[in-house]
Write a structure and sequence with these properties.
The protein is an alpha/beta fold. It has eight helices and ten strands. It has a single domain, classed as 3-Layer(aba) Sandwich (Rossmann fold), CATH 3.40.50. A six-stranded mixed beta sheet has the order 6-7-8-3-9-10, with helices on both faces. α3 crosses α4 and α4 crosses α5. It is globular, with a radius of gyration of 19 Å. The structure holds adenosine-5'-triphosphate (ATP) and magnesium ion. Magnesium ion binds next to α1.
Length: 238
């Protein structure tokens, strides 16, 4: 579903990503972790086509993103939800309008917009504040609205950048529970997070980054073990 091959990205001549390669299967749940500045946000933004890679290849849903014209990016994004590290909510629209807009752009009918926006806000516990604008909310409340906006279209791919960074442990767990539920329904989920406690608990694939490189990939470790096992079987044969 998502394949990256030797992705390199420079900011002002300095590499933020260096030859990053991995693939994510449809329906997988993947954590991306690593210290501040490792390149996690840059990686997710490239997957969302919000940034361009300088070198390498990316294939998302069968499309090579290097060949995409800017007019086809919105089509790709229709199937994606993104929780930005800094939320990126529209400050002059209410919470409800922020969510409704995500449904409007995919052409949902009015009644459905009303119903689904309300439902998703209830799920993140923000239904009682849906008529406020984001600047009137706390950081954690804004974060929950950003999560709701990313989930409301039931996207094929959910990309979330530190989605629990501003939440107390209970609200953070609630958000990860929502991610797990949507993942069980088939959505591929990629989450960048420092939240080690949750990462350990969820027992999913973990990609670790340092200084723009992938330094560990839980699945590769799994594959290595598989290969070792295969070799052991082969050498055992007469
Ligand atoms: N727009 C930009 N202009 C210049 N440098 C940038 C830009 N965005 C990111 N960088 C640099 O790229 C590197 C990776 O940044 P990135 O935001 O991807 O890290 P991160 O792993 O998400 O960190 P954090 O955990 O703090 O969110 C950093 O050194 C950062 O300074
Ligand atoms: Mg980041």
């Amino acid at each position: 579903m998502i394949q990256l091959y030797r992705i390199t990205k420079y900011y002002e001549g300095i590499p933020a990503l260096r030859e990053v390669s991995f693939s994510v299967e449809k329906g997988e749940f993947v954590f991306v972790t690593g210290p501040s500045g490792a390149g996690k946000s840059t990686l997710l933004k490239i997957l969302f086509c919000a940034e361009h890679a300088d070198e390498g290849q990316i294939i998302i849903q069968g499309m090579n993103t290097f060949r995409l014209t800017s007019s086809s990016i919105p089509y790709l994004r229709r199937n994606m939800g993104f929780v930005f590290q800094d939320y990126k909510l529209l400050p002059h629209k209410t919470v409800f309008e922020n969510i409704a807009l995500a449904l409007k752009v995919v052409g949902a009918p009015y009644g459905e917009i009303q119903r689904r926006a309300y439902q998703v806000l209830k799920k993140v516990g923000m239904d009682s504040k849906m008529h406020l604008t984001p600047p009137k909310l706390s950081g954690g409340e804004q974060q929950r609205v950003a999560v709701a906006r990313a989930l409301v279209n039931e996207p094929l791919v959910l990309l979330a950048d530190e989605p629990t960074g501003n939440l107390d442990p209970q609200s953070g767990q609630d958000v990860f529970r929502l991610f797990r539920d949507i993942n069980m329904k088939g959505t591929t989920v990629i989450v960048a997070t420092h939240d080690w406690e949750t990462v350990r608990k969820m027992q999913r694939r973990i990609i670790t980054m340092e200084r723009g490189r992938v330094t560990d990939d839980g699945r590769q470790v799994g594959k290595r073990i598989e290969k070792q096992e295969q070799r052991a079987v082969i050498t055992k044969q007469p």
